[in-house]
Amino acid sequence: MNAKPKVLFTNLIPDxxxxxxxxxxxxxxxxxxxxxxxxxxxxxxxxxxxxPIKAEVLKNxxxxxxxxxxxxxxxxxxxxxxxxxxxxxGNTPDAVTDSTADIAFGLIIAASRNFQKASADARSxxxxxxxxxxxxxxxxxxxxxxxxxMGKIGQAVAKRALGFKMKVIYHNRKQLDHFVxxxxxxxxxxxxxxxxxxxxxxLTEETLxxxxxxxxxxMKSSAILxxxxxxxVVDQKALIDALKDGTIRAAGLDVTDPEPLPIMNELxxxxxxxxxxxxxxxxxxxxxKMAMAACDNLLAGLRGEKLPYCxxxxxxxx
Length: 318
Ligand code: GLV
Description:
The chain has 318 residues and is an alpha/beta fold. It is built from eleven helices and twelve strands. The strands form two sheets. The chain has a seven-stranded parallel beta sheet, sandwiched between helices. Strands 2-1-3-4-5 form a five-stranded parallel beta sheet.
């Protein structure tokens, strides 16, 4: 009988989420400090988004057949290196769609209705009675939600927004032919017209710092920025300034740069910023689906088959 293929797990995953994988592979897992020491032995890597997997460690992975990232994002992995070396990289898009869209919509409501200030006031003795003029927010109905990146999550957020009687506009690499309830607009128009701008693009060389000082200035002063994508898509220093000087009204963030965000960071001091610690996919449902999809990608790669979800499918025609 053949030995089970060795797979490096960068993080501990609950047994019940990975089902029968343990019967099929030998799991290699070491302390964070020496987690890559045995990379030369493994045929697969099962990773999470908080562990960078860069060329300097990959160059020692002499038997590697597949990297399976249990996340939709893959900016923690040097995908260019993997493509050059014909290593497929898997991700878990469908599994995260609804939980991430829920969090984006939660942030839309939280930022537009002043959850940060209202909750802080209630907890610190500033709730003196029902107030006519305190904690006033913005109603969502009839407002324009702008979506940057109309992939699966962007579309799921758009569907939620339509249920709230919002108008939806979007900018994407391509106009979609099947989402007729939302209007395709240029990037500039998206910035200028959105009452709420929600980011749903991956972090790539093109999207790094895409929302900078200039772009924030193009937004309405009453607008809200929501980010459930990646912190680095936004120039965070420029965002802090924009929130302080009223260039925009508020922000709802599930992602920051860096993560975790140091407790002294100015974002934590702003009443008009509602911040979560990257919990977009933090539901048991999503995590189970993500783990299952990541196991499927891993096992397909170990067998030398095409991954069900592959971020660099061009390797199959190289
Ligand atoms: C979450 O941020 C993910 O990429 O899955």
